[in-house]
Design a protein that fits this description.
Blueprint: H1 7-12, E1 14-17, E2 21-25, H2 35-41, H3 50-62, E3 70-77, E4 79-80, E5 87-90, E6 93-96, H4 99-104, E7 110-117, H5 120-131, H6 135-165, E8 170-175, H7 187-191, E9 202-203, E10 209-210, E11 214-222, E12 230-231, E13 248-249
Antiparallel strand pairs: 1-2, 2-3, 3-7, 4-5, 5-6, 7-11, 8-11, 9-10, 12-13
Length: 251
């Protein structure tokens, strides 16, 4: 999703720069979450039960001081290998993204390797509610976690877009391991470019992220790349915040 970041946003968010990595922390209030967005992701396009709406509002109020929402990215030079192989190379590491994903990066000169997380608190709360038999409440919190991490990643990407525009560069859509033909097992390669436990995120043996409400991926950078309309039918995810009933969304 193409976004701009206001100076007010940049002054409020916490940004930490290292030699080659930028890390950002976000307040829940900065994400501007509409409770109806959570209900839509639950499948309610309209006429959602009032009690569900109140659950979302209550959880947003309960979590308003959470300080674990954060993201980070590192920018690396990238080499696009033969298009027929649908591969790219960062330093000595070759990624096999598949034709669908690699197509969007074909003109990239650099690659932002990113992670973002809603943090441990919300994942633990969803688990605790379900374990105590409060299944609907747990489900609401689980979906809210999805919205939080996607909204935070929107802000991370908007920040990157702004920084690159100052250099006359554009950014692509973001894509993650597990999308289309890109094997989720390549998370291990992706995380090799980030510090251990970056943003307090770790990988399981099956290459899933902990906390669960975390995302990772690539954002291509270059003078000739574009942010394009993404066709939802090419993606198997049914829990995407931007999935559109008309089968198109803008990431």
């Amino acid at each position: 999703m193409s976004q701009t970041v206001s100076n007010a946003y940049l002054s409020q968010s916490t940004t930490c720069m290292t030699d080659d990595m930028e890390q950002l922390s976000f307040k829940l209030s900065e994400l501007s979450i509409n409770p109806n967005t959570v209900l839509e992701l639950m499948g309610y396009q309209e006429d959602a039960p009032e009690e569900f709406l109140q659950m979302v509002k209550d959880e947003l109020s309960l979590l308003h001081n959470v300080d674990e929402i954060q993201g980070a990215y590192v920018i690396k030079e990238v080499q696009i290998l033969e298009k027929s192989l649908a591969q790219l190379q960062i330093e000595d590491t070759i990624f096999s993204l598949g034709k669908t994903v690699s197509h969007y990066y074909q003109n990239a000169e650099k690659m932002a390797v990113f992670v973002c997380t809603a943090g441990k608190t919300i994942s633990d709360r969803a688990k605790d509610l379900m374990a105590s038999g409060m299944y609907m409440e747990g489900y609401v919190v689980d979906v809210l976690g999805t919205v939080i991490v996607e909204k935070a990643t929107d802000l991370l990407q908007a920040h990157l877009n702004q920084q690159m525009s100052l250099q006359g560069l554009n950014c692509t859509n973001r894509y993650s391991p597990g999308y289309a033909q890109w094997d989720v097992a390549e998370q291990t390669k992706l995380f090799s470019f980030l510090p251990p436990k970056c943003c307090q995120i770790t990988l399981t043996d099956s290459c899933l992220m902990t906390p669960a409400k975390s995302v990772s991926g690539f954002i291509g950078i270059g003078s000739r790349v574009k942010n394009k309309v993404h066709v939802c039918s090419a993606c198997s995810s049914l829990n995407c915040l931007y999935r559109n009933k008309k089968s198109k969304c803008q990431l």
